[in-house]
Write a structure and sequence with these properties.
Layout (H helix, E strand, L loop, with lengths): L2 E2 L22 E7 L6 H18 L4 E7 L4 H12 L5 E3 L17 E4 L11 E3 L4 H14 L5 E6 L4 H10 L6 E5 L3 H11 L2 H16 L6 H8 L12 E4 L3 H13 L8 E4 L17 E5 L2 H15 L5 H7 L1 H11 L13 E4 L4 E5 L2 E5 L1 E6 L2 E4 L2
Helix pairs in contact: 1-10, 3-4, 5-8, 6-7
Length: 382
C-alpha cells in the first residue's frame, strides 16, 4: 500500500542514497506499522498521524510508504526488504521492540522505532520513544529545583527493569537507595513494610503509649489520646520516592506506602511518564504526585486536531510519530541531504510537538516537561 502526501510551502530536498538530491526528486520515507492483527488500530492511527504531519508540512516531494508488519518480527523484516527495493533508506517504525530483532540484516537502512527501549537494539535502530534516560534527566532537574537529596527509587521486577538500571547509570540522578520489588500484591505490601521499617515504627508507637500510660505525667490522658491518633512513630531516612510503575500497579505501590504511614504529605511522590492518566485524578490519597511527560498543551491540541479530522481518538504512540517526518527532514537538511552514518550521529536539537529532541550518537533523548496531579488537576512544574 502506498500513500503520497502533498506539499507546497517548503521545497524539501531529500535523497535516500549517499548523494545530494535535486529538487525534482522525491523524499521517500518508509513506515512500518501493524495494519492487521491485534494491534492494527495502533498502526492505522500512526498512519493518520503521519498524514496530519505531512499535510502540515505541505510538500509534494514527500512520499510515505506504509507497510504492514502484522506485529511479527519475520513479517517486519519482509516488509522492510520490500521498502529497500524502492531505495528507501530511512524508515519510521516498527512500533514494538520485539519486531526489531532481524533488522540488523539491513545495515544500510536507518529505522526510527517508536519503542522506548534503547539497550540491546541493533545498531541501525534509533529509538524515538520516551525512554527511561529522558525521564530520569527530567526527574533529576526536579530534584535540584526542590532540594530533594534522599530519593528512594522503587523499581518493579519487570521487563523494563534493565532499561531503568541503565538509565540510572547514564543520568545524573541523585539517589539514596534503590529497591527491586515484586508487583504481586500479596508480596508487595510486605516488601514496602520492610523497606520503610514499618514494624519498628509501629512498635515505637506502642512502646511510647505504654510508657506514657505508666508515667506520672498529669497530662498523660491527653497525650495518650494524641498518640492513639497516630499510626507510627519514628523517622524515615528518605525525603522522596520514585515509583517506576503505571496504572493499577502504581496505585498499589502508592497505597502500600500510605498504609505504612508514608503519605505524600511526608515524602514527595514521583513516578514516570503517565501520559496524563485521568484515573489518577480520583486517587486523592496519593496526590500530589509528580512525573515527567511530553508537552501537555501540544498533546491536547494534537488529540483535538486528530479527532476533528478523523472522527476518532488517537493513541499515545501515534502522537510520538507526529514529529518524526519533520525530524527526518531537519536532520537531512543539516547533513546536506546525504544519508550516511552521520545523519543520526552528529549532535543536534530539534523542537517538535512532543518537546525538544536531542540527537547524539544514534540516540534520541527528550527534554521533557514536568507536571503534578494535585487536587484533581494537572499542574505544570516546568
Amino acid at each position: 500500500m502506498k500513500i503520497s502526501f502533498k506539499i507546497v510551502t517548503i521545497i524539501f530536498i531529500l535523497i535516500l542514497n549517499p548523494q545530494k538530491l535535486i529538487a525534482s526528486e522525491k523524499i521517500k520515507i518508509g513506515l512500518l506499522v501493524p495494519l492487521s492483527g491485534n494491534s492494527k488500530e495502533i498502526g492505522k492511527s500512526i498512519v493518520q498521524s503521519i498524514r496530519l504531519a505531512v499535510n502540515k508540512i505541505d510538500n509534494s516531494n514527500i512520499e510515505v510508504f506504509p507497510k504492514d508488519t502484522k506485529g511479527d518480527p519475520t513479517e517486519t523484516l519482509k516488509a522492510a526488504k520490500e521498502l529497500s527495493l524502492k531505495n528507501i533508506k530511512i524508515i519510521i517504525g516498527p512500533v514494538f521492540n520485539k519486531n526489531l530483532i532481524y533488522l540488523n540484516e539491513l545495515e544500510d537502512i536507518f529505522f526510527i522505532s517508536l519503542t522506548n527501549k534503547i539497550i540491546k537494539n541493533p545498531k541501525n535502530i534509533i529509538s524515538a520513544g520516551i525512554n527511561a534516560q529522558s525521564q530520569l534527566n527530567a526527574i533529576s532537574k526536579f530534584q535540584k529545583l526542590n532540594n530533594i537529596n534522599k530519593t528512594f527509587f522503587l523499581i518493579p521486577n519487570s521487563n523494563f527493569k534493565e532499561e531503568i538500571e541503565t538509565a540510572i547509570s547514564l543520568s545524573k540522578i541523585n539517589l539514596k537507595y534503590t529497591h527491586i520489588y515484586d508487583s504481586e500484591p500479596t508480596l508487595l505490601t510486605k516488601q514496602i513494610e520492610k523497606i520503610t521499617r514499618y514494624s519498628q515504627r509501629k512498635q515505637n508507637l506502642e512502646d511510647e503509649i505504654k510508657r506514657v500510660k505508666n508515667s506520672d505525667d498529669i497530662n498523660k490522658e491527653r497525650k495518650i489520646a494524641q498518640l492513639e491518633m497516630l499510626d507510627t512513630i519514628g523517622g524515615i531516612n528518605f525525603d522522596s520516592v520514585i515509583i517506576a510503575d503505571f496504572e493499577e500497579k502504581l496505585k498499589s505501590v502508592a497505597t502500600s506506602l500510605i498504609y505504612t504511614d508514608i503519605p505524600p504529605s511526608r515524602v514527595t511522590y514521583i513516578t514516570l511518564n503517565q501520559w496524563f492518566d485521568k484515573s489518577l485524578f480520583n486517587e486523592s490519597m496519593i496526590q500530589p504526585i509528580y512525573f515527567p511527560s511530553v508537552n501537555y498543551e501540544n498533546y491536547i491540541n494534537y488529540l483535538e486536531k486528530y479527532e476533528n479530522n478523523f472522527k476518532k481518538k488517537s493513541n499515545q504512540i501515534a502522537f510520538l510519530s507526529y514529529d518524526l517526518v519533520g525530524l527526518v527532514y531537519f536532520l537531512l537538511y543539516k547533513n546536506n541531504f546525504i544519508v550516511d552514518n552521520k545523519v543520526f550521529y552528529k549532535k543536534s536539537i530539534f523542537k517538535g510537538k512532543i518537546g525538544v529532541f536531542e540527537i547524539n550518537k544514534n540516540i534520541i533523548t527528550h527534554q521533557l516537561n514536568f507536571y503534578s496531579i494535585e487536587n484533581k488537576k494537572i499542574k505544570k512544574i516546568f
